[in-house]
């Protein structure tokens, strides 16, 4: 991006319709694990991707605690997020949403996984950027016709998360302007 | 209506609903509590479905609303108009042209595709509610996967009536985990719950949203010796001769004569347009001239 | 030949036009103004504001006019409008102890600091139709006295001084808001009170009455009922202090209830609390009784199985907008479900008849 992003810039041009389009992309990938969609409309300061920034503006507000993990936790990102969403910044254990690289977000055991009566009271992780260390996984379960494929950062950890079902964490993977998702309901096996 | 936001709801409300929809998709069949808003239409008239549609629609969508399978029932007309006015979306009566379909009591006959979303209006989202009125208790049952009460009820039906005496809102097991109310669709529609489209369920008054992602396993509860049976009136449609559609029974006169017609008005229309003619039907287009 | 009914949209438009005509009534009779409703039907306005959760007498009056005097419909209009309003912030809690009281009575003491002030009440009016009002309603100006300047302390403060009434826990926590978060059970008292204030007056009245008649009876004295105006203040972050932004008329009722003590609590008086907009006496007293009945658990009382003690039952059914919507939705078309029932009942009958016939033949054969 050539234009420098400040805390005041990088918001939606037209919030109601931009957010509507962004949500449809986010919903589609959550409903169809393994599929990828374009997610654009917002720009956050580095290191956040456009897709991650767009997802934050679409889903976060003063009612959701956001955890900025590792390199995502910069003064610029904090100001940008506060200005555009009003979301309170919280620790990993209280987060509704957490964002950062996979390495920065780990370990998963810190996040809320919901309760037996309220499995929805769980964190959603936005795993942003860097997919080089990923390996191919085969996905089955709700939202998937026969099998789907997605490259994941740590299959074993994801499998452990799926074991918690119906509790657990849900994931978005953002990179550039792309988004994919992995809900806790998906069964994961190694290899494409 | 220009004083109101796109699709009526304010952005914060839509975000809250959108978050609930995502959780619902992540845990198929689980009822996610959401802070349902007071809509400008009465509770029980589709406020849940309307809120889910409002949070789902984009200006590029083509929207269809059916009630009892029909596009021209008054409440369907009213909801369709609401979104025409507040979201400026295109509307259609043709199932295959619609990207978002809001429904009350039916699943369209035509198979829905990958790019469609079906939004159900739900009056009582809790499938166990009529067995146990207390939310505190039913929530516990879901958490423990304790569905014995439901099986007992169905079994009592069989021992008393020789059949499961539930004809609509027939409970289903979603993805081997949650028993779910499919909304008051006739049980004829239950097999269609396994589909390619995304299914979202909104219960406004009861403040619950739930979802069934595409291709999710949905099994109607039954017993080995009493398997689930999707039944309908044993007639073809009197207008379009369809043998495979759910039928409404229409009383024709005070002598008790009646006819059976497709409840899905668009399905019937498209069949008639394709030249199918039923017992009391005429070729499409001729009746206006008559 | 059969032609399906079409033209739902036209029918709806026509129905609405007819409704508007009916609302106006005979055009040779002068039209009601919103100001007339606000000023002369103020108790209806108060009820609509209370159950609509919005203090705005003009809008409430407009809603009453639009709804042809159907107050639940008017509450609905206000609620639907209220949801769309942006929220600028929260005011400081109002101090009802500093209320400028128009009416203040206590049933527990003959007199108390601040006095017994009857105020504008129907109490002690003989309910005789006043035919003079039919002709003209102008009133003779009443004498006004000098306003009393002394404070009007809450009656329960005196009991608290003697430490003979239950102490309420103090908290600065922000109470929940059932219009922003889904209701969850068990709830807490703040949410219960919000729900009771919004609840249907008739329902709350019926619940309260049931406690008086012995369903979880807990004899209540009206410790105090006060009606008047309180200032509303809001902290302005830019200023660093609170400023007055307006005033509200409120009715507050605190009941004082007998309590013989329980496993966990010593014998003492306990309380129920009611607070509503405007002058809504009946509602505030009823609310206080139901509030008290719902407090059985925190006081260590027995659950007698009475409806008014059942939090989930009371709170799930008190809202008249939810109730009326769901009740009236059964007039919407349900013919698809009815058809499935029709077929099921026919099938069950057929099977039952065949069984019966089978048994009959078997019996004949045996004979």
Automatic annotation (TrEMBL), chain B:
Chemical reaction(s) catalysed: alpha-D-ribose 1-methylphosphonate 5-phosphate + AH2 + S-adenosyl-L-methionine = alpha-D-ribose 1,2-cyclic phosphate 5-phosphate + methane + 5'-deoxyadenosine + L-methionine + A + H(+)
Record InterPro entries: PhnJ (IPR010306)
GO biological process, one term: organic phosphonate catabolic process
Keywords annotated in UniProt: 4Fe-4S, Iron, Iron-sulfur, Lyase, Metal-binding, S-adenosyl-L-methionine
Domain of life where this protein originates: Bacteria
Function according to Swiss-Prot or TrEMBL: Catalyzes the breakage of the C-P bond in alpha-D-ribose 1-methylphosphonate 5-phosphate (PRPn) forming alpha-D-ribose.
Name of the protein in question: Alpha-D-ribose 1-methylphosphonate 5-phosphate C-P lyase
């Amino acid at each position: 991006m050539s234009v420098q992003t400040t805390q005041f810039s990088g918001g939606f041009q037209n919030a109601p319709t931009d957010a509507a389009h962004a949500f449809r992309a986010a919903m589609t990938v959550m409903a169809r694990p393994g599929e990828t969609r374009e997610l654009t409309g917002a720009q956050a300061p580095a290191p956040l991707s456009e897709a991650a920034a767009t997802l934050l503006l679409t889903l976060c507000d003063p009612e959701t605690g956001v955890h900025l993990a590792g390199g995502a936790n910069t003064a610029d990102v904090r100001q940008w997020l506060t200005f555009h969403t009003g979301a309170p910044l919280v620790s990993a254990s209280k987060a509704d949403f957490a964002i950062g690289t996979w390495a920065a977000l780990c370990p998963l055991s810190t996040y809320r996984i919901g309760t037996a009566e309220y499995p929805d009271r769980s964190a959603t992780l936005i795993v942003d950027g860097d997919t080089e260390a990923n390996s191919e996984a085969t996905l089955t379960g709700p939202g998937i016709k026969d099998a789907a494929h997605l490259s994941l950062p740590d299959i074993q950890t994801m499998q452990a998360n799926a074991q918690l079902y119906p509790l657990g964490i849900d994931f978005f993977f953002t990179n550039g302007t792309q988004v994919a998702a992995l809900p806790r309901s998906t069964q994961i096996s190694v290899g494409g | 209506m220009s004083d109101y936001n796109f699709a009526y709801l304010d952005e914060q409300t839509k975000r809250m609903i959108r978050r609930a929809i995502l959780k619902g998709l992540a845990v198929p069949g689980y009822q996610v509590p959401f802070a349902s808003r007071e809509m400008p239409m009465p509770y029980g008239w589709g406020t849940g479905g309307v809120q889910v549609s409002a949070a789902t629609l984009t200006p590029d969508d083509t929207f269809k609303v059916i009630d009892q399978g029909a596009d021209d029932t008054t409440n369907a007309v009213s909801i369709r108009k609401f979104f025409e006015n507040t979201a400026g979306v295109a509307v259609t009566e043709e199932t295959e042209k619609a990207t978002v379909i809001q429904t009350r009591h039916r699943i369209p006959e035509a198979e829905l595709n990958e790019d469609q979303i079906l939004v159900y209006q739900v009056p009582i989202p809790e499938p166990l509610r009529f067995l146990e009125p207390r939310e505190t208790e039913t929530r516990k049952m879901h958490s423990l996967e304790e569905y014995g009460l439901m099986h007992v009820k169905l079994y009592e039906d069989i021992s008393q009536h020789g059949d499961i005496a539930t004809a609509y809102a027939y409970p289903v097991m979603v993805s081997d985990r949650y028993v779910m109310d499919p909304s008051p669709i006739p049980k004829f529609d239950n097999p269609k719950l396994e589909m390619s489209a995304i299914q979202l369920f909104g219960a406004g008054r009861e403040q619950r949203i739930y979802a069934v992602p595409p291709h999710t396993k949905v099994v109607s509860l039954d017993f080995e010796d009493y398997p689930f049976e999707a039944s309908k009136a044993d007639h073809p449609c009197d207008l379009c001769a369809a043998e495979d559609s759910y039928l409404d029974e229409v009383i024709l006169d005070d002598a008790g004569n009646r006819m059976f017609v497709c409840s899905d008005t668009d399905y019937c229309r498209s069949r008639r347009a394709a030249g199918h003619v039923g017992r009391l039907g005429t070729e499409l287009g001729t009746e206006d001239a008559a | 030949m059969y032609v399906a009914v079409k033209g739902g949209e036209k029918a709806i438009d026509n129905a609405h036009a007819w409704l508007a005509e009916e609302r106006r009534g005979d055009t040779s009779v002068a039209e009601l103004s919103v100001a007339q409703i606000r000023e002369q039907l103020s108790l209806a306005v108060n009820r609509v504001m209370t159950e609509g959760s919005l203090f705005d007498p003009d809008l409430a009056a407009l809603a009453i006019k639009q709804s042809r005097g159907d107050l639940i419909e008017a509450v609905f209009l206000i609620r639907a409008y209220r949801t769309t309003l942006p929220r600028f912030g929260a005011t400081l809690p109002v101090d009802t102890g500093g209320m400028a009281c128009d009416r203040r009575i206590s049933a527990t003491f003959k007199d108390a600091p601040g006095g017994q002030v009857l105020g504008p009440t129907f109490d002690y009016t003989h309910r005789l139709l006043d035919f003079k009002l039919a002709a003209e309603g102008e009133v003779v100006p009443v004498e006004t006295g000098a306003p009393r300047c002394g404070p009007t302390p809450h009656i329960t403060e005196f009991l608290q001084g003697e430490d003979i009434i239950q102490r309420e826990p103090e908290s600065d926590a922000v109470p929940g808001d059932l219009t922003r978060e889904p209701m969850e059970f068990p709830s807490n008292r703040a949410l219960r009170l919000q729900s009771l204030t919004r609840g249907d007056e008739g329902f709350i009245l019926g619940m309260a009455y049931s406690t008086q008649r012995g369903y979880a009876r807990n004899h209540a004295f009206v410790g105090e009922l006060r009606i008047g105006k309180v200032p509303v203040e809001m902290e302005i972050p830019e200023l660093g202090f609170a400023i007055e932004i307006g005033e509200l008329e409120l009715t507050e009722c605190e009941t004082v209830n007998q309590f013989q003590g329980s496993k966990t609590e010593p014998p003492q008086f306990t309380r129920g609390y009611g607070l509503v907009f405007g002058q809504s006496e009946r509602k505030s007293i009823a609310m206080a009784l139901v509030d008290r009945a719902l407090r059985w658990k925190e006081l260590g009382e027995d659950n007698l199985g009475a409806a008014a003690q059942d939090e989930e039952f009371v709170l799930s059914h008190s809202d008249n907008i939810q109730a009326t919507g769901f009740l009236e939705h059964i007039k919407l078309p349900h013919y698809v479900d009815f058809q499935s029932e029709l077929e099921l009942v026919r099938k069950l009958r057929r099977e039952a008849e065949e069984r019966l016939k089978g048994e009959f033949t078997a019996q004949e054969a045996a004979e």
